[in-house]
Amino acid sequence: MIISITIPAYKSKFLNEAIESVFNQTCKEWELIIVDDCSPEDLFSIVKPYLEDKRIRYYRNDKNCGAVDVVDNWNICLNYCTGDYVICMGDDDRLLPCCLEEYEKLIEKYPDLNVYHALTQIIDETGKIIDHQEERPEFETVNEMILHQWKDNRKQFLGDFIISRNWLNKNGGYVKFPLGYSSDWATANLAAKEKGIANSQKIMFEYRINSNSISRSQNLRKAVEACNDACKWYSEQFREKLPHFYRQYFITSMTDMIYLDIKSCPLSGSFYWWAHHRDLGISKTKILNVCLRGILASFRS
User: Fold this and answer.
1) Residue 57 and residue 223: Cα distance in Å, rounded?
2) Is 295 helix (H, G, I), strand (E, B) or coil?
3) 141: three-class secondary structure by DSSP
């Protein structure tokens, strides 16, 4: 079994740590694909010392995919993979040394699944552990997975999952929503739709909370659009598997972002969302309430 680790890279600050975490694996059967998304930072100088190892390959996009189309770079990375399974991690995340070995054990125990999940701890910019995911059963159905993701706002991230490369290729790669909003969950849920998912019981991955991460705060309107797209996608893909509160989950997510947009731009934001609330399936009463709260909050601040 060969595992492909991909890093769709743009930032240099923690890239060396991400690469080192792959080289520190107890399992040595892997390939590392780094795709530089036409970054203005010198990523190649960081990668160059590692290129003598034939397991690592570096590519640079001719054109920047950008934050809105970030999933395009995930799929560009996928196109370069040759492994049996794929992990797509951030350029500031880290695999713990046991990660690939533990995945191999999990895959051996549940060989017919398309997706597996690593128990993850969350670190800050200094590498200090600040939080961790709650444990999940070793096996769960997609219904159980979705319920806990949405009901408990479960902390899961793109790099937590390892997915069959053949399955990804057959299904068009990672599910694309603007800004990558819910694209990680959607892809993993779709991969688990028929056969379920196996969860590790050991911490294997570190997700970094980073001030340089792509922020939706500058793209709130695009994020709301993405949230609405995700809602429609789930209703098409999982009709009978969705929890009863699924629509309310997305409405709440959208109104929270709309509130922030109106708070920062009270006049233009209120007019914009009043004109578009029907497209989002948000009632007049609810959008009016959000507009008033956002305007009042803007005055207080």
Assistant:
1) 32
2) helix
3) coil
**What's the confidence (pLDDT) of residue 94?**
98
Strands (E) across 100-222 are located at: 115-123, 129-132, 139-140, 161-164, 197-208
SS (H, E, C) 61-101: CCCCCCCCCHHHHHHHHHHCCCCCEEEECCCCCEECCCHHH
E strand residue ranges, 124-228: 129-132, 139-140, 161-164, 197-208
pTM tops 0.70, yes or no: yes
153 pLDDT more than 90:
no
Per-residue model confidence as pLDDT tens digits over 177-218: 999 999 999 999 999 999 999 999 999 999 999 766 655 556
What residues have CB less than 8 Å from 175, skipping those under 6 apart? 71, 183, 186, 187, 190, 233
Burial class (CB in 10 A: 0-12, 13-18, 19+), 300: exposed
The mean per-residue pLDDT over the stretch 106-134 comes to 96
Judged by DSSP in three states, 166 sits in helix
Please state, for a pLDDT cut of 70, what percent of the chain lies above it: 96
Distances in Å between the Cα of 285 and the Cα atoms of 21, 96, 250, 252 are 50, 48, 17, 14
Tokens of 3: 């595992």
**End-to-end CA distance of the chain, in Å?**
56
The answer to whether 132 touches 203, Cβ cutoff 8 Å, is yes
Distance from C-alpha of 95 to C-alpha of 27, rounded to nearest angstrom: 12
Give the residue-averaged pLDDT of 228-240: 93
Kindly tell me if the per-residue pLDDT of 296 is higher than 60: yes
Q: C-alpha angle 42/46/49, rounded to 5°?
A: 135
Predicted confidence at residue 241, as pLDDT, reads: 79
Spatial CA neighbour of 294 closest among 266, 252, 254: 266
Determine if residue 173 is left, alpha or beta; phi over 0 gives left, psi from -120 to 50 gives alpha, anything else beta.
Answer: left
